């Protein structure tokens, strides 16, 4: 019997994208939690296990990715959790500055997703 699965938090308002990423990562052995916006993601962080990485969309209703990241970095309990931005918004140079540990363009290349997530999640 193996230990608990490595957890990833997906913050994405598009249901189809969120469910596709969740399903793929679960097939790869990750435990996945999801949130439809930054506010829901903060509630998820406050209520549960610490993820090894957060996959963060930028353009969302209620609380967008920039607002979430600002709140996350101001909370000592969550500030050190790595964030990978997943966005369809142009190139990085066209996106307002956000401190991120990685970037993935949409549509997401699933092999690249694994290559990006695994280093943050130990020997997975």
What this model shows, in words?
α2 runs parallel beside α3 (65-74). The chain is an alpha/beta fold. The chain has a five-stranded parallel β-sheet. It has helices at 15-27, 38-47, 65-74, 110-117; strands at residues 7-11, 31-35, 53-56, 83-87, 102-105. The two termini are 15 Å apart. The mean pLDDT is 87. The protein has one domain (7-118): Rossmann fold (3-Layer(aba) Sandwich). The chain has four helices and five strands, in the order βαβαβαββα.
Summary tags:
124 residues, alpha/beta, 5 strands, 19% strand, 4 helices, Rossmann fold, single chain, five-stranded parallel beta sheet
Residue-averaged pLDDT, rounded?
Answer: 87
What kind of assembly state do the chains in view correspond to? single chain
- The total strand number stands at 5
CATH topology: Rossmann fold
Distance between the termini: 15 Å
Radius of gyration: 13 Å
H-E order: EHEHEHEEH
Lay out the secondary structure.
Elements: E1 7-11, H1 15-27, E2 31-35, H2 38-47, E3 53-56, H3 65-74, E4 83-87, E5 102-105, H4 110-117
Parallel strand pairs: 1-2, 1-3, 3-4, 4-5
Helix pairs in contact: 2-3
TL;DR?
By secondary structure, this protein is an alpha/beta fold.
